[in-house]
Amino acid sequence: MSTCETVRDAIYQATALLDDQKWNDWLSMCDESFQYSITSWSPEINYNMTYLAASKKDMHHLVDLLPKHNTDHSPLHRHTSVYSVTPSDDGKTAKAVSSVLIFQNMLDGTNSHIDAGESRLFLIGRYIDTLQVEDGKATFLSRELKLDNRRLDKGSHWPL
After folding, report:
1. Which of 9, 23, 38, 65 could form a disulfide with 52 if both were Cys (CB 3.0 to 4.6 A apart)?
2. Is residue 10 part of a domain?
3. What is the pTM of this model?
4. How many domains does the chain have?
5. 97-117 pLDDT, tens per residue?
6. What's the CA gap between 124 and 79, in Å, rounded?
């Protein structure tokens, strides 16, 4: 399998694990030096905003606390399309850019008798990933989710 195929497979596997809320399985795909961030450009202030910047250890703490959060349990489903995979010259790392649409399937909503069962577009953005490729396995070194949205709603404390 080529480096590009290995990286694509890892991105799609990560998407499935996040959809299934298998947070620790997703984190097991990440290197110990993994860095995760969620950012968005604000044209109003002409500045790049950072919603989250976390290490793998930070993400483990966030995941461990999820059951204690008062949260909207409406599941999120990601539609990820890998646009490009660019291996490094030595083939040991690769950078990937993917489009991601995140949909929310409403369980309750503001008016449960109206919203329940509805699917809504939750977020739009791009994953900017750097992965290490070794022995046919890709491991995430970093992920930045660059959002087109600038307003995060309830449920957004889940790893996106």
Report:
1. 38
2. yes
3. 0.89
4. 1
5. 999 999 988 776 566 666 677
6. 10
Q: Is residue 127 part of a domain?
A: yes
Give the contacts of 39 (CB within 8 A, at least 6 positions apart): 48, 49, 50, 51, 144, 145, 146, 147
CATH number (domain holding residue 79): 3.10.450.50
Residue 83, amino acid: Y
Pairwise pLDDT comparison (74 vs 155), residue with the higher score: 74
What is the C-alpha to C-alpha distance for residues 124 and 1, in angstroms, rounded to an integer?
30
Enclosing domain of residue 29: 3-147
Q: How confident is the model at residue 12 (pLDDT cuts 50, 70, 90)?
A: very high
Q: Does residue 155 register a pLDDT over 60? A: no
Nearest-5° angle of CA 64, CA 67, CA 71? 125
- Domain annotation covers residue 22: yes
